């Protein structure tokens, strides 16, 4: 009975993880292609990447309050946490919001200047930054094999940059934005895990406060970037099609806020970053096929090197976690054996039965 129930629970856990990762892949790939269309399509030509991101945040906040309201009207059909404006909670989430703004701003700026196919390599340093940030912020040590894997990823990144330069399509500013995006993605994963407790582990509340703070944080950035003077003169500012596409991107942003937090919550910041890297690899192949791009073998090799380095890093970290788990289990077992002789014989028997009943 214990085995059956245990396996069922494990199956349910894997099902939840698969659902979270799959949802993240579908929403993330869809949003990348849609944002690329909004930022560099000849049909729109809107030179305001921060405004696009700001509008996505606005749609997310509106949808959070709308879903909260609908859940009160139809409690049997819609389950959504109640949304209230709390200045204290907003301040608690603010550190994450700064990182969140940097992450999505640099993401979109990178996407504006580089193609979707190179976006994978341009953003491939997330794992490397995750190791560095985990050491600096959390004090977590990294093994030598894991560091070697990170060096492999860096090598693939540099080769990819070189091949873009050879092809004459390298954007230095795009690469810089990609590196900064990688840094903020790593920071976002770590701080999301730390900040969830302030909002009662509610991903939706965290999403709402994050995007609400971002609405105010983006305004000075848009002013500094000159976008507030560009938007009123945009020739499609009254176009229904333009606002439909913008709203659709906002909806994707709303869903992404949830599936990203969901994936981090059911896995870990490391797994989230590895999942993002693998997703980007599939995204690259799709972009090359869709736009009929011709790439050199070394260009493909750079993508493959990054993927291999990321996969090897995942394997190394997984083995390290298994060793830590086994060590902790042995230590707990030794501690239990030390305490058992202190109990009378009948107490040891009843204690053992009690512990076995917990496993059923």
Automatic annotation (TrEMBL):
Membrane disposition: Multi-pass membrane protein
Source taxon at top rank: Eukaryota
Signal peptide: none
Record-level GO cellular component terms: membrane
Ranges of residues in domain Sugar phosphate transporter: 22-312
Transmembrane segments: 14-33, 53-72, 93-114, 120-138, 145-161, 167-191, 212-234, 240-261, 273-291, 297-316
InterPro entries: Sugar_P_trans_dom, TPT_transporter
Keyword line: Membrane, Transmembrane, Transmembrane helix
Location within or outside the cell: Membrane
Keyword Membrane: yes
The name this protein goes by in its record: Sugar phosphate transporter domain-containing protein
Organism: Acrobeloides nanus
